[in-house]
Amino acid sequence: MENRKKMITEMLFRKYGSLELSRGETATVLGISTSTLDRLLKDGTGPKWSKKGNQRNGRVVYAIDHIADYMVTQVIHHTV
Hints:
The chain is of the alpha+beta class. It has one domain (2-79): Orthogonal Bundle (Multidrug-efflux Transporter Regulator, Chain: A, Domain 2), CATH 1.10.1660. It is 61% helix and 12% strand. It is built from 4 helices and 3 strands. Strands 1-3-2 form a 3-stranded antiparallel β-sheet. It starts with a helix and ends with a helix.
C-alpha cells in the first residue's frame, strides 16, 4: 500500500509540479466533477483538505499525499 501511495504522489508531483492541487485539479485526478468533490468534502468522505486565505473566502486545496491516500483507500475498498 505504501508503494502505491508513493508512486501516486510522485506521479502527481511530476505532472502538476506542486505539493497541493486545486479543487478542479483534484476532481480531474479522481475522475469526478467538482460538485461531487464538494459533496465528498461536505460529507467528510473525500480526501483531506485545507483552506488557504481567510476562513470565509479561502481557497480549498488538497495535498497530493492526501489525494494519494484517498486513492489507495478507495482501491482497497472497491476490491475487497
